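Posting here for the record, re: BIS(adenosine)-5'-pentaphosphate.
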Amino acid sequence: MNLIFLGAPGAGKGTQAENVSNKYSLPAVSTGNMLREAVKNGTEAGLSAKRYMDAGDLVPDEVVIGILKDRIALDDAKNGFILDGFPRTVEQAQALERMGVNIDKVLNIHVADERIIARMSGRRVCSDCGSSYHIEYKPVKSEGVCDSCKGSVELRDDDKPETVLARLKTYHEKTAPLINFYDSRGKLRTVEGQEKIEDTTRLTLEAIDS
Ligand code: AP5
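Prediction output follows.
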């Protein structure tokens, strides 16, 4: 099974991708996490990506498509995968089609912009493994320490309010057109994001089975 999680920044794609990944034993592939890892490691791709990410803009298609192609060619993705944050432009979606990747369902997690802005200020992420938390909705067990790998849990660089607004603008301009793209292919399932993570997970699993 190949799934895509679509939605605005902070809609809960990563959170739901992780829950579905655990349930179906499919790898969750987050281009955002891969790019942050590249930035942290100071690779050439990471250095060129950083200025786009800091500005709330998208990293150029050719860079992200290359990273994604290499990732889904790995052994653990042979029986399926969950894409979190890819595709983000129609060009990226067309590139997936050109690669011959069949997508079973596209889960579009819908959350209003006002709620997104409030949510992002409470998000904390592990700087080592990328696990995502929220100070209110999904707190870590021990202050500042990742439950999974004991790494350091911090505010993400691009979660500053002004960058969040830029990311939302980018989403509406460049990514939202994918809703029609996948709807016209009969793949789209919209999930209304709920206040509680487990409620969204329940609706997401129902949408996958529908
Ligand atoms: P990326 O890391 O993909 O960021 P994003 O899409 O902006 O998504 P987020 O990770 O911010 O949010 P999410 O929807 O995963 O929400 P989460 O589950 O964490 O990309 C970062 C940057 O990399 C981009 O800006 C771009 O520059 C670049 N990039 C990445 N992919 C690219 C691509 N394909 N092409 C070009 N550039 C690319 O949830 C958010 C918070 O809310 C968390 O704290 C969570 O605990 C909490 N939460 C989640 N669900 C709920 C709920 N139901 N109720 C309450 N709280 C909740």
